[in-house]
Amino acid sequence: MNRLRVGGVWSFILRRLLLGIVVLILVSVVVFLATQALPGDPARAILGRSATPASLAALRRQLHLDQPAIEQYWTWVTGLLRGNLGNSLAAQEPVTTLLGPRLVNSAVLVAIAAVVSIPLSIAIGSWAAFKREKAFDLVSSNLLLVLAALPEFVVALVLVIFLATTVFHVLPAISTVPPGSQPWNNWTALVLPTLTLVIAVAPYVARIMRASMIEVLESDYVEMARLKGLPERTVLLRHALPNALGPVFQVIALNLAYLAGGIIVVEYVFNYTGVGSAIREATFNHDLPVIQALAMLIAAVYVALNLLADVATILVTPRLRTRL
Amino acid sequence: MSELSTALIADAEVGAAPPVRGTSLLRRSLRLWRTRIGVALVGILVLLAIIGPYVAPYGPSTPVGAPNSNPSGKAVLGTDYLGQDVLSRLLYGGRSILIIAVIATALGLVVGTAIGLLAAYSRNALDDVLMRGMDVILAFPQIMLSLVAVAIVGPHTWVIVVAIALTTAPRIARVARGAAQPVVERDFIAASEAMGVPRWRIISGELLPNTLGPLMVEASLRLTYSIAVIAALAFLGLSPDPNGANWGTMINENQLVLPVQPWGTVAPIIAIALLTIGTGLVGDGIARTAAGIDRPRGEE
């Protein structure tokens, strides 16, 4: 691990960063073209048949539809970079004003879910690998397999049935965040949506953790550490765990990016005031500026998470650094 | 994501497995209990979806009593929020989900495999162009892309099929490319090329059979996701027939009356859960068999 290798890491990060930007530019073209592909006149599709010619012309101007496509794209992308996302057609206010508070609400939800599920699933996966083929492993593996197969809205509604409506009434089934209020002001309302997201993510991370840990526990250096007479605790925490984490970062990033889709359904179930429910509402209202903004946001989150995961994997996996 | 991650995950999850033929893989995976349970669950639900409409006591939209009435002799699972028979709607409601899921996944499988194998075989700029194109689609969660497609074009069956196929293809393409890359370097490919075998013959006759194992694993996983996304779209209120009997639609409609009449929600939830658990178990069985985990210890 000399200086040259470190340079290799930096050039790798730079390459991945450039690749991410290329993907985002392509995404912006696709998002733009998709909204251009609206059948017929977008202004009429949005306003309906009863629209007056004056309002149609006004909307065309607002959407810059009177300009050539290239210019429209340029106006939109440069606006995007300056933080000007246009106006929501349904709410008649800037997209940033509309989405700002919802973004905070969703970020809180996803952050709590990540903070709970990642250590939990790493612990479950490691312990299952350590107790391979014993009772804990068999029970947890089969349970995780079943949970991984369930769609989020099924998980969410089963939780609602058991904890909020039919069986017990210990938690609220509706988690609306009123305007001006913060999600943590009413923490009981956060429990069920967060728990749903945890159950949606944890099985995948735990399973890959178990597989990775099993491989590491069978390696020569773990054998060596044990033969040196190190306590089992040290072998597991200092020698096995860090080496088993490599493949897990990738799965965590994939799953956090997946949560961006999961919140659409989960926020709808619990009527949570976040970007997920905003996506559903915007698609029903044909609110193009909101859809465009959210599509770019989610793609950017995906690219950023993958970049972070690649960097983290490289940092914990010395053998990969030599492949660069 | 990078090739790096795919390689790492494959290393950890599967290990170095020899290529297996598709049919023998399926047969071998049936030695595992989880595969058998999965096949049984899927079989029961497919049967329910196929013969359901013929044995249903009422039509899917026939009013049979007061809304939200409890189970009785007349309506075994009670009635829904419009007074329709829950059992009848349950028996009618699986068909469209299953048909759309199977067609869309098959379409995504064919397109994704073709793209992945072509990318792996070309080993040049075409590889980069194809896989960056796949990356663009992967930057969106499956449910979001489907939601936007349906919102822009309209909730037609073909839109849902195309959206699911389009979002399934890049995930399949990645696996196909990853599995084909080591095969492309082998001598028999070079030999075929030297003999002047046409490119498409090499891809379909030499590459494809050697990548079937990982592709089957991925295909079964994708089918589970397709079912989940199609049901979720209906649950979000976007199905081709907004009032039709569909498990996702049923849950959406009856969710609010859960405290009064749970069966309208619980019955379709159980159906969807058993179906996805079934496909999930079959997928896991195939994955284990492909990875050689099913063999008794010591034989490996």
Description:
The complex is a heterodimer of chains A (324) and B (300). By secondary structure, chain A is mainly alpha-helical. Chain A is 76% helix and 0% strand. Chain A contains 14 helices and no strands. In chain A, helix 11 (246-270) packs antiparallel against helix 13 (288-316) and helix 12 (275-285) runs antiparallel to helix 13. The longest helix of chain A has 36 residues, at 95-130. The model of chain A has no long low-confidence stretch (mean pLDDT 82). Chain B is an all-alpha fold and 300 residues long. The two termini of chain B are 32 Å apart. Helix content of chain B is 70%, strand content 0%. Mean pLDDT of chain B is 82; it is low at 1-17 and 294-300. In chain B, helix 2 (22-29) crosses helix 13 and helix 3 (33-55) packs across helix 4. Chains A and B meet through helix 1, helix 6, helix 7, helix 8 and helix 11 of A and helix 1, helix 6, helix 7, helix 11 and helix 13 of B.
